[in-house]
Amino acid sequence: MLYALLGGFGVAALAPWLHQLFGRHSGWALAVWPATLFIYFASMLSGVNDGPVLIRHDWIPSLGIQLSFMVDGLSLLFALLISGIGVFIVAYAGRYLEQHQDLGRFYAILLAFMASMLGLVLSDNLISLFVFWELTSITSYLLIGFNHEDAAARRSALQGLFVTVGGGLALMTGLIMLAMVGGSYELSALLSQGDVIREHAWYAPILALILLGAFTKSAQFPFHFWLPNAMAAPTPVSAYLHSATMVKAGIYLLARLNPALGGTQLWLTVLGGVGAITLFIGIWLALRSTGIKKVLAYSTVMALGTLTMLIGLGTDIALSAAMAFLLAHSLYKGALFMIAGIIDHGTGSKDLRDTGGLFRAMPITAVTASVAALSLAGVLPMFGFVAKELLFESVLSSAAFWITMLVIAGTAMTVAVAALIGILPWYGKNAATKKTPHEAPPALLAGPIVLATLGLLFGLFAPLVDERLLGAAVSAVAGSSVTPNLALWHGINVALGLSALTLALGLCLYFWRDKFRHYTRFTDTLAKAGPERGYDASISWLVKISAWQTRFFQSGYLRYYLLIILLTFMALVWTVMLIHWPALSMGINLQGIQLHEYALVFVLVAAALAAARSESRLGAVASLGAVGFTVALLYVMFSAPDLGITQVLVETLTVILLVLVLFRLPGFLRLTSTALRLRDAMVASAVGITMTCLLLFAADARLYDSISHWHVAQSVPGGYGRNIVNVILVDFRALDTLGEIFVLALAATGVLAMIRLRAEDKSR
Questions:
Q1: Residue 471 and residue 484: Cα distance in Å, rounded?
Q2: Which of 605, 326, 580, 336 has the alpha carbon at shortest distance from 447?
Q3: Spatial contact of 422 and 369, defined as CB atoms under 8 Å apart
Q4: Do the Cβ atoms of 426 and 358 come closer than 8 Å?
Q5: What global pTM score does this model have?
Q6: Per-residue pLDDT tens digits for 361-385
Q7: CA-to-CA distance for 453 and 21, rounded, in angstroms?
Q8: 70 forms bridges with which residues in the sheet?
């Protein structure tokens, strides 16, 4: 398993070289890797009904974090979709982007994304799941913005990145809190702690944070706007990311955590309500759109809303409908997105209004599109019909009345959208196109034909799909054994009647589509004030605030930088000290201090005041030198002669450097007012008091036993020296000493450069 997942990143790294090696056949050559993965995962189908397979590898043992994987019905379903559809996407990309100069780079990013997505759905550890989650965001950003010279592609890529990564930060917090409540970072352990998690006081915030991450990733309202904008990506990206992979990552997370977080009224209300609203908004916008990829993208939003709603309902039949709908959608939407690319490739048209009569020139593509569209519409005997029947049964048995009405209306509009894709481009009178229409090559047709055919076969043999694949997936989502009982025919019932009704309403909407768009044009005005405008406004304010704080903090004056740093430091230190004040103790003992020690402190304070009040730079340097040498005397008095010698050397070097610099400066000027000098004096005094209190508290704090006894005992046998400080510096902490030597060498180099510069000036 580890080789299967991490090997994808290795293949991605080799992809540009393999592209050069295989040339125009590189798509088929690289498709061997996902095909191999598909065979590997398919070999696990026979054993997945016996329970999850757990695979663990040590990752960060000191923190108890493992690189662990779990293969059950849910993760296996996603793995098969990711790798199986990935085979056709890679082959499709090789032909679709054949003339693109950066095709090798595209392969690398696409395969890295595939590996990231597989890691996400197979991870059993929350930390590794989050790592793969963020990797999908990064790689999808690179894929959406692949045509980086296009401003629209760059904007859409950034928009998708900001939305999904913003949700990812919330998800990270939610996952950490979930692990703290559940007592483990392993999903396999957390899923059995559902009662503990749901009864905990943190349940609501955990749910809110995790849902924020899932909703942003899976384009739920009000975050739905980024997905249609991502259609700026090349068609292979749209077909892969927005049908079976990235946008379903949030759906996977909701399904995976259903046994631990689901079953509450809050879960039902939020997921059911948000999912139903997203369903309706997505299909409404799809019906109002005319761009082929836009129509498909908004219908994907509808599908994601449907899946979220079904997981929220949480009944056995709703979860069965969710898994069936997920499989059906992946098949027909992957096929339809690739067909959209074929239309663009073969005719140069990207808008439905610019197509028509293409059946004569592209019969195979037309038939394939019609079959996939039938599954989208939920027409017998397609697998989409099986999923739609389960959808109706779910909402009729457990959903609120308004949710049921939204589902019926959305399903009717979905039929109209399916007709737009499956009828409008192919039949009727010929439309004038930019290119002469021609049939697509095998590399472009293979994926749509296989996926559309599977949609038909899975409908005809629904019980077999139930037994071999979906049954285990539904049981994993439910947290208990569930038999979906998929069948193409359940007899004459209410669900069948609603299916026929929505088909009729959908066809009416298709034929009256122009009138529908005319009478609903007022919603375009509402859309302009929608969530995307809020996103644009937030980005605009972010830029303005960033510009303001840059002007405020990055003034170009060192004194202001120091002032801000010191004030921030004091605020943080005193905040912590005041919070923990009752537990702090300040050790101040003035007994036993001798007269000469008081004299040294007096000299130290006097020298510091003289440096601050001096109007001569040379006098200020001399006073600072007196401060340093007085500190060296204090070291000597308290039995630290080596530190005293070090202090003398450093202070001497510092004084020399400052004196050399002074010769390069203009004459002394009084640049600040008395008020500013008083302000600086107050800040300096406050910093001094802060450091004094901090040191006194720190000197009195003993959280752990002192390590000085260990150093005393180990000085001779471990470092062969009786000077304990020297042994520590040279042996026990040699790396620190090496760093200090490097700093001194760097300072000496600077001094030498200044002296030589001075000598060159004099010679001139």
A1: 6
A2: 336
A3: yes
A4: yes
A5: 0.81
A6: 899 999 999 999 999 999 989 999 9
A7: 33
A8: 54
